[in-house]
Amino acid sequence: MSRITRHRGTTAVAGTCTASEPALIVAAHGRHYVVELQDEARSRLHAFPRGKKSDCAVGDHVMVERAAADQCVIVEVRPRRNLLHRSDQFKSKLLAANIDQVAIVLATEPGFSEDLLGRALVSAEALALRPLIVLNKIDLTERLDEARKRLALYRELGYAMVELSVHAAPDDALAQLKPRMAGAATILIGQSGMGKSSLLNLLIPGVDAQTREISAKLDSGKHTTTFTRLYHLPEDWGAGGCLIDSPGFQEFGLHHLSEGMLERAFPEFRPRLTQCRFYNCHHTNEPGCGVLAAIEAGEIAPRRHQLYAQLLHESRQQKPW
C-alpha cells in the first residue's frame, strides 16, 4: 500500500508529487461536479469530493488535484462569503455559494406561489443578499392585474422589482436586467414554468452549447437532466458577473434558520422588535408585542405574519442530525 503524506498544496504518493490548483465549481448534481480551472482557456474537469461527505456548492472556490486527464478530486473548499440553501426536517439542499443577488422569477401565467416568493425573500434577507423580483410574461394580460395586486405588498416593502416579457419584448427585458446583474453573482430561482430557461437564453449567448458541455461532463444521461450550473455573463457587461441557474422547485424549506434569524429576516418586523414588552418575545401571542400591535394597526400585513409563524413552527421541529 502506498504511503500518502500531506503537505499544503501537494500530495506525495510513492515518491511523486501532485500539486493542487484553484478552481471554481460551475455545475453540481449530487456528488458529481464540474470545475473550471483558472487557466487562460478556463478548462473544465469532472470533479468529485474526497471521502463520502459532499458539502460543495456551485460558486464555491476550491482546490483540486488531477486524478486523470479530464478528472480531478476536490481536496479543499475555500472560505465562503455566504451559502444559500434550503432545508426541511430531514435534509439540506445546497443551492449556491458566494452570491450577491437572488433573482426570484415569477410569471403572470401559470400563477406563482406567494409562499415560495416569501420564503425566498426571507432566505435572501437572512444572508444579507439583494433580492430582485422578476415578473415575466406581462404580455399575457388576462392575469397581469391580479399578479400586480399580489405583488403590491412587496413593492411597498421596498423590494426591487422588474416587469418584462422575454418572448414579446426581449430587448426591453435585456435593458432592464443588464444594469441590475452586471458585475454581480446572481442566482435564478423559481417554480417550473415561470420562464427561467427563456430568461437564461436571453442573458447568456450560446447557453445551449454550454449546457450540453456541462451535461457531458456530469454524464447526466446516467443521472438526471436537472442540475445547478454557473454561467459567466458576457464580457462586455463588465468583469466578475455570473448567473447561476437552479432547477425549478415547488418547496423552499428554511428549517435551518433560527428564531432570531427569522424575525430579523422580515424587514417590517425590525423596527418593532425593540417595542416588545418581553426580551424573549416570540411575536405569536404574547401581550405587549410590538409586532402584533403593528398588525392590529394595519402596519404589517397578516399574511406576512402567517408566513413567519409557519417558518417558526418548522424551525422548532426536532432536527434528526
UniProtKB/TrEMBL annotation:
Give the matching NCBIfam families: ribosome small subunit-dependent GTPase A
InterPro entries per UniProt: G_CP_dom, P-loop_NTPase, Ribosome_biogen_GTPase_RsgA, RsgA_GTPase_dom
**Residues noted as binding Zn(2+) in the record, renumbered to the chain:** 276, 281, 283, 289
Molecular function as annotated in GO:
GTP binding; GTPase activity; metal ion binding; rRNA binding
Q: Name one GO cellular component term.
A: cytoplasm
| GO BP, one annotated term | ribosomal small subunit biogenesis
**Residues in CP-type G domain copies:** 87-252
Residues annotated for GTP binding in this entry: 136-139, 190-198
Keyword presence, Transport: no
Needed co-factor(s):
Zn(2+)
Role according to the record: One of several proteins that assist in the late maturation steps of the functional core of the 30S ribosomal subunit. Helps release RbfA from mature subunits. May play a role in the assembly of ribosomal proteins into the subunit. Circularly permuted GTPase that catalyzes slow GTP hydrolysis, GTPase activity is stimulated by the 30S ribosomal subunit.
UniProt EC number: 3.6.1.-
Q: What is this protein called?
A: Small ribosomal subunit biogenesis GTPase RsgA
Name of the gene this protein is made from: rsgA
- What EC class does the entry list? hydrolase
Q: What family does the Swiss-Prot or TrEMBL record give for this protein?
A: Belongs to the TRAFAC class YlqF/YawG GTPase family. RsgA subfamily.
Predominant localisation class: cytoplasm
Localization recorded for this chain is: Cytoplasm
Q: The EngC GTPase domain covers which part of the protein?
A: 97-250
Q: Which UniProt keywords apply?
A: Cytoplasm, GTP-binding, Hydrolase, Metal-binding, Nucleotide-binding, Ribosome biogenesis, RNA-binding, rRNA-binding, Zinc
Q: How does it assemble?
A: Monomer. Associates with 30S ribosomal subunit, binds 16S rRNA.
Which free-text remark accompanies the cofactor?
Answer: Binds 1 zinc ion per subunit.
